[in-house]
Specification:
The chain has 7 helices and 5 strands. By secondary structure, the chain is an alpha/beta fold. The chain has a 5-stranded mixed β-sheet, sandwiched between helices. Helix 1 packs across helix 4 and helix 2 packs across helix 3. The longest helix has 24 residues.
């Protein structure tokens, strides 16, 4: 079976109620980092659901209400640029996931986390899954929720700061975004600890 046809799995383990977690916006120069947690029924399946990066914006937005309707529970949370500057982006990503987990009305008894590192959440057991958003439905769903909610947030900010092209780049370090920072300076929504220099500009 080709890699592109592999079906995403419904669960990592069956004994405990499981939540998948993922974040969006880790590598951005501006805006918060968002994270989501999703709890699906044990036998849940959706053939369209996949890693948010492999889906078009239209498909992500179409899937969001389906995820929210069919999940047993879900939550989305964020950590601001100011907080990111204080604790660093790695800790902020974990904090965003913790905040999402705090909001679940149906607490998870087991967590599967996209990536290779995590800060333990209370005493809940967990497993980190590298590229988990392309392997497990709950992590894929979390990636879609985190991505779509963050994109909407950046679209709203873009109305106030159109020069930075956030409607297109969502805060990521594109050439146009970097040049705007060099020419106009940073906004209150930029991460001050993320450096923007001429040599970096030429890398893109």
């Amino acid at each position: 079976m080709k890699e592109g046809t592999i079906k995403l799995l419904s669960y990592y383990q069956q004994e405990l109620r499981e939540a998948g977690c993922d974040e969006a916006g880790r590598g951005c120069l501006a805006g918060p980092v968002f994270a989501a947690a999703v709890v699906f029924p044990l036998d849940y399946y959706n053939p369209i659901l996949n890693d948010s990066k492999k889906l078009s914006e239209k498909k992500r937005m179409a899937l969001r209400p389906i995820i929210e309707q069919e999940a047993l529970d879900f939550a989305v949370a964020s950590v601001s640029a100011e907080e990111i500057d204080k604790i660093n982006i790695h800790q902020a990503s974990y904090l965003a996931m913790h905040r999402a987990l705090d909001q679940l009305h149906i607490p998870a008894d087991y967590l599967i986390i996209d990536g290779n590192k995590f800060v333990p959440y209370q005493t809940v057991p967990y497993t980190c899954v590298v590229k988990g958003d392309g392997k497990y439905l709950s992590i894929a769903a979390a990636s879609i929720l985190a991505k779509t909610y963050r994109d909407e947030y950046m679209d709203n900010l873009a109305l106030e700061y159109p020069e930075y092209d956030w409607l297109s780049n969502k805060g990521y370090p594109t050439v146009k975004h970097r040049k705007a920072i060099m020419e106009l300076g940073i906004t209150p929504h930029h991460r001050k600890t993320f450096r923007v220099t001429d040599p970096q500009l030429r890398l893109f």
